Amino acid sequence: MSLFTRLVSYLTLGATLVASAPLLDTIANSTDGQDGLLPHPSCFPALDFEMPLFLPKNNTDGWWCDPSTEYAFVGFSYEVTACQSLATLNQEFHDIRHHFNSRYVRLYGACDNDGFYDDIVEAAWNNGLGVHALIWFGFNGDDVWMTRRDTLFATLHANPKAKFVTRVVQFGSEPLFDNVLPHDQLAEQVILAKQNLSSLNIPVTVSELAYGYQERGGAQDVLDAIDSINIHMLPFFDQTASTSNESWPLVQNDLQWFIDHGDGKKMNLDENGWPSVTSPSVQPNSPDAVADIPNEHEYFVLLDQHCEDFKATVGGGVGWFAHIYSDNMEPGYGIYNSSGHLKFPFAPRTHC
Ligand SMILES: *[C@@H]1O[C@H](CO)[C@@H](O)[C@H](O)[C@H]1NC(C)=O
Ligand SMILES: *[C@@H]1O[C@H](CO)[C@@H](O)[C@H](O)[C@H]1NC(C)=O
Ligand SMILES: *[C@@H]1O[C@H](CO)[C@@H](O)[C@H](O)[C@H]1NC(C)=O
Ligand SMILES: *[C@@H]1O[C@H](CO)[C@@H](O)[C@H](O)[C@H]1NC(C)=O
Ligand SMILES: *[C@@H]1O[C@H](CO)[C@@H](O)[C@H](O)[C@H]1NC(C)=O
After folding, report:
1. For tag attachment on the chain, is the N or C end more exposed, with fewer CB atoms within 10 Å?
2. Atom 12 in ligand 3: which residue has the minimum CA distance?
3. What is the pTM of this model?
């Protein structure tokens, strides 16, 4: 049925009822996809999507938004090493969604408590947010990531809501840069993960710097294996870095490398930002690199100014995450400082 005929029939129906307004309200607020009265077929996790009261039946067909709508600002990196309570997750995901118009959280770090990913799923569902889940390698060179992988996969299969909020599973952070696995073994892990998650329709990626691939000979096997590309964009560390407002050529340079080698796959800048302070683990490689709050802010202003460029990039446009939600998660990179105050106004565009 066309939109027009459907509108007319509802109006006709409405006119025959005394209490027509509530009916029209209900119809106008419905989110039934292609044939609804919304300006576009809504989908999860679009900003105008209303979560259903009940879990959709069986599979995710037609559930997820088209990747071509997921460009510009999409959400935050969010570290979970603190093993936040469900109450904190609910509160912060609500803020992430409603204060900043986010569609996603990208997990960073790891919490190995039993059932923690179930809490992530619950908070994400409650707040209409999608999740980029993460298999965290850490920095100790041990095998704990295998347990994390198995636990996550088991939850994704067991929790009926999980596949409706988990947009992608990432291996990370920076497994190539940190050389935690030879690239052919990482590619093999990606392929095995895709097989494991195929019945849930959950794709798999790697969270990595351009330089991480480049220093492993390009690691084309990994790029070929992943479904989409999660890019670490941290231009502060470039050898030619100065102020963030001069960093667009650095962003373009790394992005172009993925355009050239990524076979047109969807790209997100998932670990992406500029620090307001240096620290032992955040040291520049350029004497001119400036770390302060105005430069942290200006980096996101710069990305916002290039909304149209991100939209026009292959793969359905580039989405970007702000790394990271709070300074308590990574010193200097937070949008909030460590006492919970916004460091600068932050309302980036979600479309253009
Ligand atoms: C529909 O949305 C409007 C505006 O957001 C709101 O005022 C109204 O209460 C909603 N109706 C229903 C039935 O949810
Ligand atoms: C659920 O989905 C699976 C695969 O998507 C399909 O094989 C199965 O028949 C479906 N079950 C029901 C009850 O629709
Ligand atoms: C997926 O991985 C989990 C954890 O390793 C395992 O228990 C499960 O059998 C696997 N499922 C499939 C379909 O491969
Ligand atoms: C970038 O910011 C600096 C101050 O941090 C300013 O002096 C400079 O003019 C700005 N450059 C551009 C291109 O806006
Ligand atoms: C956080 O920001 C507030 C408001 O600008 C400021 O008063 C406070 O000192 C800041 N806290 C830290 C730890 O920087």
Report:
1. N
2. 196
3. 0.85
